[in-house]
C-alpha cells in the first residue's frame, strides 16, 4: 500500500469574486522511499494541494470540498487538530522555497533545530541529547564545522547553507514524508545541483517518501519516480518520469516540454560585421566603505566589447556583479573607475545633463515586472512618457504611437487604460519591453527579463525579444543566471564571477569547450530535462 | 485613431480615474459635500449671519436655544449661531492654510531628502530633528514676540511645526520607492530628477500623506484653540471653534449648549474630513478595488 494516497481531492477558495477551484479532483499516491514530482506553472494549485494535506491553508476562504487523503491508512482531511499536530513535523515535514524567510532571525539555528525535538515526541530528548542529534544532522546535510555553526544565527549563512539547515530541520524528527515546495528555485544553479543531490541522498539513507513541487520540468527529471503535471487546479497527466518526458500524452505537458529553452540559438542567417558598438575598459564599480575592508567590489576591472547587432549573454551566480555591470554601463550605478565608450563617445566623462540624449539610445529591461512599472500609471502613461519626454511624439500623435508600440509587443490595444496590477507577469513584462523600445534605442540591457516568469511565458517573452532585436537591429546585453536561456538567445557569452569576467567566447564554442574550471562547473550544474541522461549524470557525479 | 483610444485618452490619468472612483464612494461624497458646505457658509458669513458677532444683549445672559437665537446665547447674550459661523471662518482657515503649509514644506522636504539621499539627506533630516527637539511653544512665542501678533503668522507658525512629521513620513516612503525598478527605469529614460520626483515618487507617497493630512487638519484646529487660550492666537471678541469649546467647558454644567454646538461643528468637520480622506486614499490607489 502506498504511504500517501490522495483521491479526488477538491480544494475551493470562496472569495468575494466567486469560487476559485484551486485543486479540482486530483488524485495521487506516493510510496515510501519514492519521489513524486508535482509540476505546474504558478497558480496551478500545486502548493495548495500539498498545504491542504497538512491543514496549512487559511480557512476560510479555502474549503476542502471533497476527497480523501490517506496517510498510512488515516485520512488527513478529517483528522482532529490534535492528530494533525502529531503528523506535522513528526511524520510529514515541509521544506519551503525561500530559506531566507523561513528561519527566525532572532534565534540561533541550533535553537531552531532542536525545537521540534524538545516540543514534539513527548520531549523524549533532553537538551544535551537534542544538541548532539542536531549536530549529527547538520553534519549529514553538509554543514562544515557543524559543532561551531550550531550557535550561529541565520544571517551568518548563505542561501544554500540556509536551505541545508531547513532540510536538517525537516529531517530531524525522521519524517516518513517530505514535502519540498520549490526548494531550489531561489538558489543558484550550482547550489541547486548540490541541494538536489542532498535530497536524493537523504531519501535513500532514511527511506522517506518525497513530494517535490516545482515549476521546472528540468529540475525534476533526475529526481522523480512519478510525475504529476497540473494546470489550473486539474491533473493534466500522471505517470512515471520516463513516460511523461518521452511519451507525454496531454497537450499541456507537450507544451511545457517544448517551452524548456534547449540547444543553440537558431542561426539568423545574415553574417554581421564585427563592429564594436560599446567598448568597456577597466570598468570598476565599488560600493560603500570608508576603509578598504568594507568596500564591495561589485565590478572589479572588466574590459570587453559589445558588437553592433549582437546579443551578448552575461552569466553568473547571484552576487557575481552582473546586474551592477549592466547598470554601470547605463550609468544607473556609479562608476568608480574605467571607461564606457558608446560608438566612440566617452560616456563616463559626461554629466547627467549631457547624458540625456544618450539615454534615449540605451535602455534597460528589468527582472521584476511587478516592481518595474509605476503602479499609479496606466499603460498609456507608461508608454507615452518616454515618447513625450524625448519629443518623439507630440500630444496629437502620441496615442497612435502608443498603439503601435502595443501592437509591437503583443498587447491588445483595449488594455491601454489599465493599470499594471490588472495584468499578469508576462503581460507586464511586455509593457516594460514596450517602454524600453519606445525611444527607438540601439542598445538594450536586459537584466534577467524572463527569470520571474513561468516557463511557457518565458518562452514567449524570449521569442518577443529575439524578434524585436532582429526587427530593430538592436544590440543587447542579456544578463541571466539561467545558462540554458542564455545559450538559446545569445551570440556570444561572458562568464562573470566575483566582479571579474572569467571567460568570453562565442556561445557554442564556449559550451563545447569551456576553458575556465568555473565555467565547466556551471555548465555541469544545469539540470537536463531528460530523465535517463540526468540520472546517468548524477550517478557519474556521485562517483 | 480608434474610438477606444479616444475615450481612453480622456480619462486615463490618475486624477481623472480618481475622480470617477471618488464619485462612486457615497461616504466620501458626503464628506466632500459637508466640507464644501462649511467652507461656503464661512465665506458668506458676514452677509448671512443673523446677528453681528460683537452684538451683545446683556439682558438676555446665557439663554438656551429659542426661536430668536436658534443655538442659544452665551453669557454676554451674544448669538451662538453667529459666533459659531464666525468661529468657523477662523478655524477652517487655520486648519486648511496651516495644513497646506505643512503639506507643501513637508512633502517637498521629505521627498528631496529621501530621493537625493547621502549627505543632503543627513543635513536635512538633522534640521528636522533639531526643530523637533525645540519646544514648539517657545518657538511660537518667539515668533509672536518678534513679529507681533498676526493671524497669518499664526498659520505659518502652526504649519512650521506640523510639517516635521509629514517630512519624516514622506522621506521613509521615498527611501523605499527610490530603490524600486520603475524609478530606475525612469532614470534610464533620461528623466530629470525633478520629473522623477514629481511623476513617479510623489504620486506613490499619496496614500499615507492624505491620511496624515486629514488627521492634521483637526489637530491644527485644536492647536489654534490652545494658543488662543494662552492669549497667543485669536482674541475676543473674535472667536474660533476651539475658543468657543474652551469657554464652553468652563460653563458646561450650567449652560451645556455653549459646549455642545461648537463641539458638534468641530466633530462634523472632523468626520467629514476623515471620510473624504479615506475616499481619496482609495481613489488614488489604482490597486484598490473598483467597486
Would you give an account of this structure?
- The complex is a heterodimer of chains A (543) and B (291).
- Chain A has 543 residues and is α/β, with parallel strands linked by helices.
- Chain A is built from 20 helices and 20 strands.
- Chain A has helices at 46-53, 81-87, 109-119, 127-140, 146-149, 159-171, 189-206, 217-220, 241-246, 251-259, 322-329, 352-359, 379-389, 398-408, 425-438, 455-472, 483-489, 507-512, 517-525, 531-542, and strands spanning 4-15, 18-30, 35-39, 62-71, 74-75, 92-95, 177-181, 209-214, 226-231, 234-240, 276-287, 296-307, 311-315, 337-342, 345-346, 362-365, 443-447, 475-480, 492-497, 500-506.
- The model of chain A has no long low-confidence stretch (mean pLDDT 84).
- Chain B is built from 11 helices and no strands.
- Residues 1-11 of chain B have low confidence and may be disordered.
- The A-B interface holds A 327, 330, 332, 355-360, 362-364, 366-368, 371-378, 380-381, 385-386, 389-390, 399-400, 402-403, 413-414, 416-417, 419, 421, 432, 435-436, 439 and B 1-2, 4-6, 8-9, 11-14, 17, 180-182, 184-191, 195, 199-200, 203-204, 206, 284-287.
Amino acid at each position: 500500500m502506498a504511504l500517501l494516497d490522495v483521491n479526488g481531492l477538491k480544494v475551493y477558495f470562496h472569495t468575494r469574486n466567486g469560487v476559485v477551484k484551486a485543486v479540482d479532483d486530483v488524485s495521487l499516491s506516493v510510496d515510501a522511499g519514492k519521489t513524486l514530482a508535482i509540476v505546474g506553472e504558478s497558480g496551478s494549485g500545486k502548493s495548495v494541494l500539498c498545504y491542504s494535506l497538512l491543514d496549512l491553508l487559511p480557512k476560510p476562504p479555502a474549503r476542502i470540498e471533497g476527497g480523501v487523503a490517506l496517510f498510512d491508512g488515516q485520512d488527513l482531511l478529517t483528522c482532529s487538530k490534535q492528530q494533525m499536530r502529531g503528523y506535522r513535523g513528526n511524520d510529514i515535514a515541509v521544506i519551503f522555497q525561500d530559506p531566507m524567510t523561513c528561519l527566525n532571525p532572532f534565534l540561533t539555528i541550533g535553537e531552531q533545530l532542536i525545537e521540534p525535538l524538545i516540543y514534539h515526541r513527548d520531549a523524549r530528548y533532553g537538551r544535551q541529547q537534542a544538541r548532539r542529534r542536531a549536530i549529527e544532522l547538520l553534519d549529514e546535510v553538509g554543514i562544515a564545522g557543524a559543532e561551531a555553526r550550531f550557535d550561529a544565527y541565520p544571517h551568518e549563512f548563505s542561501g544554500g547553507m540556509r536551505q541545508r539547515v531547513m532540510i536538517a530541520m525537516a529531517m530531524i524528527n525522521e519524517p516518513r514524508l517530505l514535502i519540498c515546495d520549490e526548494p531550489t528555485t531561489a538558489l543558484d544553479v550550482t547550489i541547486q545541483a548540490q541541494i538536489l543531490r542532498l535530497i536524493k541522498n537523504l531519501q535513500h539513507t532514511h527511506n522517506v517518501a518525497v513530494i517535490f513541487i516545482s515549476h521546472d520540468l528540468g529540475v525534476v527529471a533526475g529526481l522523480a519516480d512519478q510525475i504529476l503535471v497540473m494546470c489550473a487546479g486539474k491533473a493534466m497527466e500522471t505517470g512515471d518520469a520516463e513516460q511523461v518526458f518521452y511519451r507525454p500524452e496531454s497537450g499541456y505537458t507537450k507544451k511545457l516540454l517544448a517551452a524548456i529553452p534547449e540547444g543553440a540559438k537558431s542561426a539568423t542567417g545574415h553574417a554581421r560585421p564585427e563592429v564594436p558598438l560599446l567598448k568597456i575598459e577597466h570598468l570598476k564599480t565599488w560600493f560603500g566603505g570608508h576603509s578598504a575592508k568594507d568596500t564591495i567590489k561589485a565590478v572589479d576591472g572588466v574590459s570587453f566589447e559589445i558588437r553592433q547587432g549582437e546579443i551578448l549573454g552575461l552569466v553568473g551566480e547571484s552576487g557575481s556583479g552582473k546586474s551592477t555591470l549592466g547598470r554601470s554601463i547605463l550609468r544607473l550605478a556609479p562608476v568608480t573607475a574605467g571607461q564606457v565608450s558608446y560608438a566612440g563617445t566617452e560616456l563616463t566623462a559626461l554629466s547627467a545633463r549631457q547624458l540625456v540624449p544618450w539615454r534615449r539610445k540605451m535602455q534597460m529591461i528589468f527582472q521584476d515586472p511587478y516592481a518595474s512599472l509605476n503602479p499609479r500609471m496606466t499603460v498609456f502613461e507608461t508608454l507615452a512618457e518616454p515618447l513625450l519626454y524625448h519629443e518623439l511624439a507630440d500630444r496629437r500623435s502620441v496615442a497612435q504611437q502608443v498603439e503601435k508600440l502595443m501592437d509591437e509587443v503583443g498587447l491588445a490595444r483595449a488594455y491601454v487604460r489599465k493599470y499594471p496590477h490588472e495584468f499578469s507577469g508576462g503581460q507586464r513584462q511586455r509593457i516594460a519591453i514596450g517602454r524600453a523600445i519606445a525611444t527607438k534605442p540601439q542598445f538594450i540591457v536586459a537584466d534577467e527579463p524572463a527569470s520571474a516568469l513561468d516557463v511557457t511565458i518565458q518562452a514567449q517573452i524570449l521569442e518577443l525579444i529575439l524578434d524585436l532585436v532582429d526587427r530593430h537591429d538592436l544590440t543587447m546585453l542579456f544578463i541571466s543566471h539561467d545558462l540554458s536561456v542564455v545559450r538559446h538567445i545569445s551570440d556570444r557569452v561572458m562568464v562573470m564571477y566575483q566582479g571579474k569576467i572569467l571567460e568570453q567566447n562565442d556561445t557554442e564554442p564556449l559550451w563545447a569547450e569551456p576553458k575556465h574550471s568555473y565555467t565547466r562547473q556551471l555548465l555541469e550544474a544545469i539540470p537536463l530535462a531528460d530523465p535517463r541522461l540526468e540520472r546517468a549524470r548524477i550517478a557519474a557525479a556521485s562517483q | 485613431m480608434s474610438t477606444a483610444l479616444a475615450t481612453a485618452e480622456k480619462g486615463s490619468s490618475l486624477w481623472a480615474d480618481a475622480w470617477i472612483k471618488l464619485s462612486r464612494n457615497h461616504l466620501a461624497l458626503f464628506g466632500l459635500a459637508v466640507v464644501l458646505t462649511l467652507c461656503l457658509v464661512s465665506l458668506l458669513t458676514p452677509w448671512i449671519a443673523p446677528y453681528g458677532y460683537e452684538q451683545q444683549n446683556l439682558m438676555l445672559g446665557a439663554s438656551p436655544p429659542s426661536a430668536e437665537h436658534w443655538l442659544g446665547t452665551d453669557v454676554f447674550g451674544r448669538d451662538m449661531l453667529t459666533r459659531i459661523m464666525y468661529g468657523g471662518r477662523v478655524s477652517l482657515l487655520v486648519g486648511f492654510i496651516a495644513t497646506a503649509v505643512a503639506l507643501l514644506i513637508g512633502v517637498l522636504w521629505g521627498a528631496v531628502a529621501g530621493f537625493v539621499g547621502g549627505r543632503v539627506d543627513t543635513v536635512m533630516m538633522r534640521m528636522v530633528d533639531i526643530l523637533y527637539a525645540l519646544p514648539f511653544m517657545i518657538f511660537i512665542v518667539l515668533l509672536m514676540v518678534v513679529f507681533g501678533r498676526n493671524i497669518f503668522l499664526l498659520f505659518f507658525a502652526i504649519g512650521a511645526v506640523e510639517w516635521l512629521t509629514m517630512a519624516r513620513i514622506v522621506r521613509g516612503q521615498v527611501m523605499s520607492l527610490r530603490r524600486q525598478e520603475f524609478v530606475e527605469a525612469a532614470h534610464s529614460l533620461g528623466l530629470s530628477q525633478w520629473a522623477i520626483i514629481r511623476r513617479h515618487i510623489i504620486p506613490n507617497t499619496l496614500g499615507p500623506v492624505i491620511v496624515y493630512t486629514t488627521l492634521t487638519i483637526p489637530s491644527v484646529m485644536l492647536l489654534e484653540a490652545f494658543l488662543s487660550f494662552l492669549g497667543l492666537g485669536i482674541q475676543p471678541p473674535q472667536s474660533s471653534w476651539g475658543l468657543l469649546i474652551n469657554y464652553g467647558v468652563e460653563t458646561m454644567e450650567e449652560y451645556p449648549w455653549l459646549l455642545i454646538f461648537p463641539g458638534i461643528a468641530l466633530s462634523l468637520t472632523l468626520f467629514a474630513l476623515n471620510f473624504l480622506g479615506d475616499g481619496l486614499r482609495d481613489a488614488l490607489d489604482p490597486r484598490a478595488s473598483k467597486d
